[in-house]
Amino acid sequence: MKRFGPLDRDVPAIGQGTWQMGRDDRAAALTALRRGIELGMTHIDTAEMYTGSEELVAEVIAGRRDEVFLVSKVLPQNASRRGTIAACEQSLRRLRTSRLDVYLLHWRGNQPLEETVAAFEQLERDGKIAAWGVSNFDADDLEELRALARPGRPVCNQVLYHLEERGIEHAVLPWCETHGAALVGYSPFGSGRFPSPRSPGGKTLATIAAAHGATPRQVALAFLTRHPSLFTIPKASSPDHAAENAAAANLELTASDLSQIESAFPLGKPPRTLPTL
Ligand code: NAP
User: Which residue puts its alpha carbon closest to atom 11 of ligand 1?
Assistant: First the structure.
C-alpha cells in the first residue's frame, strides 16, 4: 500500500484492470476479481469504453464498495462540460455506486481541456468523484493541463508501461514525480505479449524469479512498481492469475535484480510521441 499521488489514501501498488473481461467466462472473471480484492488488489480500473466491464465490476463490488478504490474513465468525445457530467452519471449507474474514487479522461481528444476540468471540478463538488486524473497524457499535455488545474490535480496519469515499453520513464514519470501525481502503468504484461521464457529477457526474469521463489510475471510487476509513485493494473480473468499477481506485492527485488532487468529490457531512446496501446 502506498499514497496515491496527493490523495490521503493508501492504494495497493498492484491493482486490477478489467478491459475485455467477462466476455468469455463471466463466472471466472467475477471469481478472479473477487479473489484479487480478497488478496489486496483493491484498486479496480474500468472505463465507459470497456463494454460490459462496469456492469461486471458492479457485481463484484456490491456490498463492499468501501473496500475498493474505484476508477473509471470518460471517452474524449464525451468530455465536454455537460458530456463529462452525463458520462460520469451513466458510469455510476452501471457501477451501481454513488461515487468514484478517481475519474479519468481516457485520452486527450478535441474537447477543450478547460471544459473537461470544469466538469471534473463540478463532479468533485457534488461528491460524485473524490478526485480526477488523466490517461495517455504526454509531458507537454500534462504541463498544459497544469496551467488549468488547481494544485494537486491531476492526481494521476495512466499510461502504457511494461518491460518492453519503458518510454514514459524519459519525461512522463519525471513530470509525475515532480508534481506529486501517481503514475499508473497499464498493460504491464504487454497486453498478453509477455517475454517468452526462451528469449534473453525471459531467461533473466526466470533466473531472478527462481532466486526469490517467485514467477517471471511477479518479477515484472515488482519492477514496474519499484518507485513510490508507480502503480500497475494487470488484467487477469483467471482466478489463479489474479492470485499470482496479488502475491507479487510481497516480492522485494534487490539492487542487483533491478540492474539486471534494466539491462535485459533497455530503456531505449525518448519516444517522439507517447506510446499507447
Ligand atoms: P495486461 O494486464 O498486460 O495482460 C493481460 C493478459 O495477461 C491476459 O491475457 C491475462 O490472461 C494475462 N495474465 C494476467 N495475469 C497473468 C498471470 N499471472 N499469468 C499468466 N497470464 C496472465 O493487459 P491489459 O488488459 O491490456 O492491461 C491491463 C489493464 O490496463 C486493462 O485491463 C485496463 O484496465 C487498463 N488499460 C488502460 C488503457 C488506457 O488507455 N488507459 C489501455 C489498455 C489497458 P487472463 O485474462 O486469461 O487471466
Answer: 236
